[in-house]
Amino acid sequence: MMFKNEIDHSEMRITTKPILYSLLLFLLMSIPGYSTIRYVKAGNITPVPPYLTWTTASDSIQKVVDICLSGDTILIGTGVYPQIVNSDHFGRDLTIFGVDVDSCIIDVSGFPLEPLLKVFRFKDNLNIENLTFKTRLGTTEHIAIYTLGSTFNHNTVNIKNVNFLGFLEAIALLNTSGSVENCYFYASVVVQSLVLNIPIHNLC
User: Fold this and answer.
1) Which residues contact 91 (CB under 8 A, 6 or more apart)?
2) What is the pLDDT of residues 30-54, one digit of tens each?
3) 176-185 contact pairs (CB < 8 A, 24+)
4) CB neighbours of 138 closer than 8 A, spacing ≥ 6?
5) Among residues 172, 78, 177, 73, which one has the least CA distance to residue 120?
6) How many CA atoms does the CB half-sphere of 137 hold within 13 Å?
7) How open is the CA angle 158-116-99, to the nearest 5 degrees?
8) 167-184, pLDDT tens digit by residue?
9) Concatenated DSSP letters of 150-178
10) CATH fold of 34-201, please?
11) Angle, alpha carbons 102-36-182 (nearest 5°)
12) What are the sequence ranges of the domains in the chain?
């Protein structure tokens, strides 16, 4: 028997449990999961989203970029990719990695020499490694990698072990921090960087 002013604490514990479980579930769902590796394979005839194996790899870099979540890695297989890639996902962290620098070729030599062409145009935070960008030697209006951060919140781009062949500007970095390391440039203007100083190391 309870007096009028007494509180039934057991009842309180029972009613608060669902609230605590709901809060715990919400917190768990808010924690970022492990990053996903998504695959690109030139000429693959069995592409199946979300492109999680070589068998189901996309034949398009753009299609994979479009579905990536922050922290994902895009693994590009050997082959030639005559493709333009654009992304406006500012703040997303993305890694693009070729399996072999000399055999993973982004080739835009078949595209018109002008007007201005940006092969990889990204607003994401990027790590790019082990790729070759190729265009027609001579005078073109082609830029291999073009990145753009915001005026007050720069993106971060790190480019490592990448070949650039024949570009008006190999790399154009605007409102961007990061680094360029161990890259090879042939008949290409090396780096155009606006606003921020980009460390450049071991260029050939």
Assistant:
1) 70, 124, 125, 155
2) 444 568 999 999 999 999 999 999 9
3) 176/147, 176/148, 176/149, 177/149, 178/126, 183/159
4) 113, 166, 187
5) 172
6) 4
7) 35
8) 988 999 888 888 999 999
9) -SSS-EEEEEES-EEES-SEEEEEESEEE
10) Pectate Lyase C-like (2.160.20)
11) 30
12) 34-201
Location of structure tokens 């990145």: 147
Helix residue ranges, H only, the chain: 9-30, 61-67
Give Cα 191 to chain centroid, integer Å: 19
Residues 134 and 77: their CA atoms lie apart, in Å, by 16
- The residue type at 197: N
Q: What is the mean pLDDT of the chain?
A: 83
pLDDT of residue 188: 86
Question: Which residue in this structure is represented by tokens 């002008």?
Answer: 114
Rounded (10°) CA dihedral 125, 129, 134, 140: 30
Give the full edge-to-edge strand order of the sheet including 191-194: 85-87, 117-122, 142-148, 169-174, 191-194
Coil, helix or strand at residue 61? helix
